[in-house]
C-alpha cells in the first residue's frame, strides 16, 4: 500500500459525525477483535482441564505451550509495528487471520504434546498480526486526531470477548470433545475474520503526520526525536517496566481465576461465568475512560489505574468467600483490566505522538505481551510452589504495587497538559486546527 497522499474518499463512505473518516474499518475491527480474542485466548482457560483429562498431558505443560504462543506474539510485535507504519493493516491482518485458522486446526488435531506446542507457536505468530496491537495502530492512523474515540469503541466491544466466548466454549464442551470445540471455533474464526480484514481494510493508508500535505515543516532548530532516542529515555523505560509488571500480575489473575474460584467452592460452570462477567467489567471500565482522561494527567491516571489493579488482586487474595462476593471482585478486576487496555493503547500517542506509533507501540508491547504470556505459567508455578492460589495472588499483589510505584516516573518532560495531545506536539496541533478540513486525515 502506498505511503503517499490518500485518494479522496467518496462522500457516501464517510462517517456521519463530521470527521470525514469511514466507520467501516472500526466496525470490522470490533467484530474481528472480539472473535480473535475469544478463540485464540479466552477459549484456552475453559478447555485446559479437558485437554489434560483427555490427553494425560500435565496442566503445566499445556499452559507452557499456551504461554509460548504469547511470547511468540510479543516478539512478532516489533516487526509487525514497523510494517504497519509503512504499509497499513490489510495484508498483514488478513494473512494473520488465515494463519490463525490453520493454527487452531493444528491445535485440534495435535497427536502429541510437541505437535500441540508447535501449533500454539504458530498461533502466536498469528496473534501478533490480529490482536490488539495491529488494530490499535490501524485505528490510531485512520482516525487521528480523533483516535481515542475509535480506540474506546474497539476496546468496549472487544472487552466482551470473554463474556461471549467463555460461556460459549463451556457450552460447546458439554456436547463435544475439546478437539471438536476447537474445530468449531476455527470455523468461526475463518468465516468472520478473514473476509472482514480483506474487505474492510482496503482504504488507502494515511501518511504519517509529518508528511501530510496540510502540516507545516518542522523548524530546522527542532529535529524530530527518533524512535531509538525515545525508547532509551527514562520515561519510556519506566513505562515499559510498569506496564510489564502490571500485565504479569493482571493476566496471571485472569488465567488462574477459575482454579481460585473452584478451590473456594464454585463449580466450574460458575467460575467460567465469573470469567465472562470480567469481560462485562472491562466494558464498564472503558466507558468511563474518556472522563478519566479529561480529569487527570497522563501520569496520574497511569498510577491510579495500576494501583486499582493491585487493590482488586489483593482482595481476591485475602477474601475467602462467599463465592458471590468473589465474583463481584472478579468483575471489578475486569473493570480495571479494561481501563488498563485503553491506557496501554494511548500510552504512546499521549506522550510521544502518532507519527511512529506502530514502531513505538510494538517495542512497548513486546515486554508487556511477554509478561502476559509468562503469566499463566508463572501463576501455576507460584501456586504449586506456595501451596495454593491465595498466596499466589498475594505475590501478584506485591508485583502490581511495584508497577504502580514505577508509573509515577512515566511522564515525559514535554508533557505539560492534563489532556491527551491527540498525539501531536502543540505546535503541529495548532497548525492542524488552523488548516482547512480535509475529507481524510
Q: What is the compact description of this entry?
A:
By secondary structure, the protein is mostly helical. It contains 17 helices and no strands.
What does this structure look like?
The chain is 75% helix and 0% strand. It is mainly α. Residues 1-19, 211-224 and 414-441 have low confidence and may be disordered.
Portion in beta strands: under 5%
Class by alpha and beta content: mainly alpha
The Cα radius of gyration reads 21 Å
- The SSE string, one letter per element, is HHHHHHHHHHHHHHHHH
Query: Stretches where pLDDT falls below 50 for ≥5 residues?
Result: 1-19, 211-224, 414-441
Q: Helical amount among residues, as a percent range?
A: over 70%
The number of helices is 17
What number is the mean pLDDT?
77
**Total E-strand runs:** 0
Ends: how far apart? Answer: 16 Å
Quaternary structure classification: single chain
Largest sheet: none
Q: Which of globular, elongated, flat, extended, rod-shaped describes the shape?
A: globular
Write the layout of secondary structure elements.
Elements: H1 24-55, H2 59-87, H3 90-109, H4 113-130, H5 132-143, H6 147-158, H7 161-173, H8 178-200, H9 227-232, H10 234-263, H11 268-287, H12 289-295, H13 298-318, H14 323-352, H15 357-386, H16 389-406, H17 426-434
Helix pairs in contact: 1-2, 1-5, 1-6, 1-7, 1-8, 2-4, 2-5, 2-15, 3-4, 3-8, 5-6, 5-15, 6-11, 6-14, 7-11, 10-11, 10-13, 10-14, 10-15, 10-16, 11-14, 13-14, 13-16, 14-15, 15-16
Amino acid at each position: 500500500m502506498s505511503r503517499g497522499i490518500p485518494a479522496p474518499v467518496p462522500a457516501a463512505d464517510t462517517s456521519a459525525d463530521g470527521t470525514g473518516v469511514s466507520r467501516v474499518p472500526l466496525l470490522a475491527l470490533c467484530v474481528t477483535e472480539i472473535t480473535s480474542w475469544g478463540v485464540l485466548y479466552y477459549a484456552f482457560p475453559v478447555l485446559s482441564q479437558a485437554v489434560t483429562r483427555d490427553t494425560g498431558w500435565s496442566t503445566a505443560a499445556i499452559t507452557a505451550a499456551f504461554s509460548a504462543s504469547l511470547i511468540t506474539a510479543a516478539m512478532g510485535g516489533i516487526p509487525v509495528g514497523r510494517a504497519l507504519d509503512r504499509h497499513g493493516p490489510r495484508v498483514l491482518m488478513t494473512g494473520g487471520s488465515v494463519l490463525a485458522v490453520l493454527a487452531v486446526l493444528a491445535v485440534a488435531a495435535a497427536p502429541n504434546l510437541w505437535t500441540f506446542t508447535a501449533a500454539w507457536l504458530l498461533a502466536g505468530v498469528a496473534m501478533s498480526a490480529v490482536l490488539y496491537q495491529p488494530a490499535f495502530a490501524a485505528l490510531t492512523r485512520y482516525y487521528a486526531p480523533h483516535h481515542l474515540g475509535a480506540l474506546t469503541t474497539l476496546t468496549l466491544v472487544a472487552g466482551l470477548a470473554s463474556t461471549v466466548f467463555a460461556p460459549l466454549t463451556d457450552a460447546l464442551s458439554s456436547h463435544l470433545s475439546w478437539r471438536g470445540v476447537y474445530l468449531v471455533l476455527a470455523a468461526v474464526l475463518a468465516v468472520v475474520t478473514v473476509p472482514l480484514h480483506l474487505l474492510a481494510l482496503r482504504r488507502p493508508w494515511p501518511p504519517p503526520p509529518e508528511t501530510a500535505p496540510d502540516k507545516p515543516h518542522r523548524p530546522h532548530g527542532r529535529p524530530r526525536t527518533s524512535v531509538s532516542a525515545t525508547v532509551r529515555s527514562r520515561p519510556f523505560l519506566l513505562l515499559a517496566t510498569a506496564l510489564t509488571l502490571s500485565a504479569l500480575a493482571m493476566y496471571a489473575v485472569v488465567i488462574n481465576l477459575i482454579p481460585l474460584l473452584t478451590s473456594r467452592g464454585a463449580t466450574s460452570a460458575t467460575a467460567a461465568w465469573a470469567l465472562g462477567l470480567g469481560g462485562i467489567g472491562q466494558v464498564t471500565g472503558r466507558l468511563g475512560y474518556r472522563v478519566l482522561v479529561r480529569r487527570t494527567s497522563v501520569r496520574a491516571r497511569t498510577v491510579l489505574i495500576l494501583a486499582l489493579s493491585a487493590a482488586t488482586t489483593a482482595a481476591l487474595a485475602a477474601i475467602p468467600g462467599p463465592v458471590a462476593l468473589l465474583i463481584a471482585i472478579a468483575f471489578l478486576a475486569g473493570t480495571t483490566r479494561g481501563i488498563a487496555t485503553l491506557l496501554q493503547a494511548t500510552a504512546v500517542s499521549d506522550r510521544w505522538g502518532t507519527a511512529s506509533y506502530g514502531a513505538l507501540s510494538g517495542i512497548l508491547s513486546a515486554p508487556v505481551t511477554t509478561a502476559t504470556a509468562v503469566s499463566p505459567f508463572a501463576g501455576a508455578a507460584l501456586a504449586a510452589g506456595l501451596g495454593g492460589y491465595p498466596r499466589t495472588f498475594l505475590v501478584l499483589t506485591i508485583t502490581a504495587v511495584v508497577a504502580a510505584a514505577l508509573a509515577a516516573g512515566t511522564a515525559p518532560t514535554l508533557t505539560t497538559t492534563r489532556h491527551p495531545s491527540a498525539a501531536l506536539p502543540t505546535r503541529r496541533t495548532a497548525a492542524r486546527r488552523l488548516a482547512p478540513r480535509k475529507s481524510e486525515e
